[in-house]
C-alpha cells in the first residue's frame, strides 16, 4: 500500500519498512519457538553430561541488565546440579523460564533461581513475584499459545509458548516438571532431573557456586 501511494514520502516509506521488519522479527521468533517445541516433543537422540548451575549462570548473566532496567532483582543460589541430555535444549528451557519470570512480574519485583541436588535428583527452581495465579489456571498456561490475561490492557506481549516449551523440554529429558502459585504471586516452577550415575562429572567440578547473587 505504501509503494502504491503516489504521495508517499521517504519518511512514510521508512516507517512502513520499520513496521515490516518488526513483524518479520516477531514471526522469526515464533517460528523458532515452534521448531524448538517440535524438536522437544520428538525426544532426545543423544545424551550429554551438563551442569544446570553452569547453564543457569550463563542465562542469568545475559538477562541481569534487562532485570535492572525493569527494576527487578535476581537472587540466585547455584550449586552443582549434574544432568544428562541436550545442553542446548536445557539452556533454552532455563531461558524461557527466566524470560517468563521477567516478563510477568511487577515493578520492584524479584526472581529467585536455585540449582541443587537432593535425593538423587538435580533440581532447578525458578520463582517470581507477580500477579496472583490460581492453581486452576496453571495447567492451561502449560499449553501452547496460552497466556494468563491476553485481553487485559498492559499485559506483556508474548507468543504464549514459553512455558509449554519448557515443559516439553523437561519431558524430553524425563524430568519432573511442576508449577504452583508463587508465595508472593507469580509462579514457582521446579524441574527435577535424575542425576547421572556416579562417573566422570568433570563439568560439574568446574561449575561455579553462586550464593545469594542479586542484580
Report on the structure:
- This protein is an alpha+beta fold and 215 residues long.
- It has one domain: Histidine kinase-like ATPase, C-terminal domain (Heat Shock Protein 90), CATH 3.30.565.
- The protein has six helices and eight strands, in the order H-E-H-E-E-H-E-E-H-H-E-E-H-E.
- It has helices spanning 10-42, 52-69, 87-103, 135-141, 162-172, 202-205, and strands spanning 48-51, 73-78, 82-85, 110-118, 121-128, 176-181, 187-194, 210-214.
- The strands form two sheets. It has a six-stranded mixed beta sheet, covered by helices on one side. The protein has a two-stranded antiparallel ribbon with strand order 1-3.
- Strand 4 and strand 5 form a beta hairpin.
- The model is unreliable at 150-155 and 198-215 (pLDDT under 50).
Counting DSSP E segments of at least 2 residues, the number of strands comes to: 8
Oligomer: single chain
The CATH architecture comes to: 2-Layer Sandwich
CATH class: Alpha Beta
Strand neighbour order, sheet with most strands? 6-7-5-4-2-8
Tell me the distance between the termini.
46 Å
Approximate helicity band = 40-55%
Series of secondary-structure elements, N-terminal to C-terminal: HEHEEHEEHHEEHE
List the helices and strands and how they pair.
Blueprint: H1 10-42, E1 48-51, H2 52-69, E2 73-78, E3 82-85, H3 87-103, E4 110-118, E5 121-128, H4 135-141, H5 162-172, E6 176-181, E7 187-194, H6 202-205, E8 210-214
Parallel strand pairs: 2-4
Antiparallel strand pairs: 1-3, 2-8, 4-5, 5-7, 6-7
Helix pairs in contact: 1-5, 2-3, 3-5
Amino acid at each position: 500500500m505504501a509503494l502504491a501511494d503516489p504521495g508517499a514520502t521517504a519518511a512514510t516509506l521508512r516507517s512502513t519498512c520499520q513496521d515490516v521488519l518488526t513483524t518479520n522479527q516477531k514471526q522469526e521468533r515464533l517460528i523458532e519457538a515452534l521448531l524448538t517445541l517440535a524438536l522437544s516433543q520428538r525426544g532426545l537422540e543423544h545424551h550429554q553430561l551438563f551442569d544446570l548451575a553452569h547453564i543457569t549462570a550463563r542465562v542469568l548473566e545475559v538477562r541481569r541488565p534487562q532485570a535492572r532496567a525493569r527494576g527487578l532483582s535476581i537472587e540466585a543460589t547455584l550449586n552443582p546440579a549434574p544432568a544428562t541430555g541436550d545442553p542446548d535444549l536445557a539452556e533454552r528451557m532455563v531461558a524461557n523460564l527466566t524470560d517468563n519470570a521477567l516478563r510477568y512480574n511487577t515493578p520492584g519485583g524479584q526472581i529467585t533461581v536455585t540449582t541443587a541436588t537432593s535425593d538423587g535428583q538435580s533440581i532447578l527452581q525458578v520463582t517470581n513475584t507477580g500477579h496472583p495465579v490460581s492453581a486452576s489456571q496453571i495447567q492451561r498456561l502449560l499449553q501452547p499459545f496460552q497466556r494468563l490475561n491476553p485481553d487485559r490492557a498492559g499485559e506483556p506481549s508474548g507468543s504464549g509458548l514459553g512455558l509449554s516449551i519448557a515443559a516439553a523440554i523437561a519431558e524430553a529429558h524425563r524430568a519432573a516438571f511442576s508449577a504452583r502459585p508463587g508465595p508472593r504471586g507469580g509462579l514457582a516452577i521446579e524441574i527435577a532431573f535424575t542425576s547421572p550415575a556416579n562417573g566422570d562429572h568433570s563439568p560439574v567440578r568446574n561449575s561455579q557456586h553462586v550464593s545469594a547473587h542479586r542484580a
